[in-house]
Amino acid sequence: MKAILAILAIALPCLAQPPAKPAKPPDYKKLAQTRVTGVFDSISKEADFTRATKDLTTLLDELIAYAPDGETDAFREADFGLRLVTQLSQLTNGRVDLLTYLRANPELAQALVFQIQQEDKIAGVYGLLDKLRKKHGTELNKLASLTAAVCVVHDQPLVDQVNENTSKAADPVQIFDFFKSHQGSMHFPLTSMPPELLIFVVNTTASIDDLNWALNKYAGDARVNRRYSEVHYDKAYFRGQAEKKVTVAGFNLPSILKNGGVCADQSYFAQQVGKAIGIPTAGISGRNASMAHAWVGFFEVVTEKPRWNFDAGHYEGYENVRGSTLDPQTRQTIPDSALCLIADTSISGAANRRAAIAMTDASLRLAAIQKSKLPFPPTGETVIPIRNPARHADIAARLELLEAGLRKSPALAQGWNLISSSATELSLKDKQHWATVLDTLCGAKNPDFSLAILTAMIQTIPNIKDQDTFWSSLFGTYQKRPDLAAEIRFCQGGMWEKSGDKGKAWVCYEDVFKRFPNEGPFAVDAAQRCEKLMKDGGKNEGASALYAALWPRMERPGASIAPEFKQQSNWYRVGRLYASSLEAEGNLPMAESVKKQLDR
Predict the structure, then answer these.
(1) Which domains does the chain have, with CATH numbers?
(2) Model pTM?
(3) Phi-psi region of 592 (alpha: psi -120 to 50; beta: other; left: phi over 0)
(4) Which of 38, 63, 414, 419 could lock onto 67 through a cystine, CB 3.0 to 4.6 A?
């Protein structure tokens, strides 16, 4: 009995012990912040940017290897530190001073550091920042987005070539001062608009006098579309009967309004007026037409939904033609669909946008590690706790990081473009997964942009049957957008033509011009492809019958449309092809009859 009691006396205290609490998960964000702060402190003492870059690269590598993909805040903190140190290390003077200034102005630092892209001239960006801070000091932190936008757009001289006229941007400090001084008159608040949108405001090439003129005349009137039509068309110049009046009088905003111009001048006027009153605008140029045309896009919010409006100057004959514009920051051509995606940056939140950029950077870093075959994952003593299983340097891990970022902010075009550029590495299962992710996150809101990404993926599928299945499925998905459905079928025809199956290619092309004769430019292109297939098959005659059947299906431009735009319509273009084919076949009377109808 005594033995039993003795055993119980030992066992009972153990049984009474409460269960051990599970270990508290690591605070990855705090760990990253502490390490970044430590590196910044060391720079202030030693100015060793090489070592700092190495230390922060190691921190990012550790997060890539061991942090869960949901810890996007930690990635954002680490990437911010690495971006800032890497950018400042490229400067020759004032690096530590700028670091001290940016640490004291954190919102400005975050806005600028994450807005900078690889195409930017770092010396120009930070040189301009230095000029602005010497004049405005800590005030820049209150206008962080505006400051970041001005610095990345005007890191090098900005010039607009509007046909024969050249318009050079004013001094960037003066441009900043204009917007700062007139904050209360801007249509959209400069303090809340993200830099991704503000770059389409501050990229003005109008003079400061012109900006003040436009602001005084149009403040409070957000109808940018009306500004386009206010400029009357200089028909005498277009027809070669006279010099362009605005060029003779002097190229500036009041002169354009008074003397008129052609579509490029109309677009330029509307753009610059929009920018002067704080509305993001972009000049859009036509694509896949026999004659260039320019219209304007502008940002607006309709029933609390942000969007880009492309209606101004988007005349009949161009209604279903998608266009392109120039990215003010990278100076590269981008499709107008990318602007639609950028609109959503106004609602995604700064922290989420920056997290998406950081996760994209992490994916790119992992790709570099994979390509260089560097040792990975990191071993030994690490700042980030080692967990198993660790990520490895492979495509699966890169996609995992990328998806985590895009789910934070689907408005990041760079992230989606990275998927597109990695398409050859994706398995069919990967592509099916990303097609679903793309459709879920931005397919319904931005179908044009989504299709561009999907097209790049589908065209890398090596198996023709699998690719055909993908095209057919996509065709069914886009039935609500006949112009996009026509593009899909046209691409499908191109696939069969490339593979050597001209019969199936013909069926796809024929489907385009029979079902979608007035939906964008693809009907004309498809008919020309069929004509080429006929000639490749030794049938040098018969094209006229093809165009004879197609031409009546084309909508004839209305009587009110100007001749210069009538020529862009599918009806006119097919009519010209019809007349040419008749001439080639020797049917000159009929060809002349068609030409008369075109010129009537």
Answers:
(1) 28-153 (no CATH), 193-331 (3.10.620.30), 422-599 (1.25.40)
(2) 0.89
(3) alpha
(4) 63
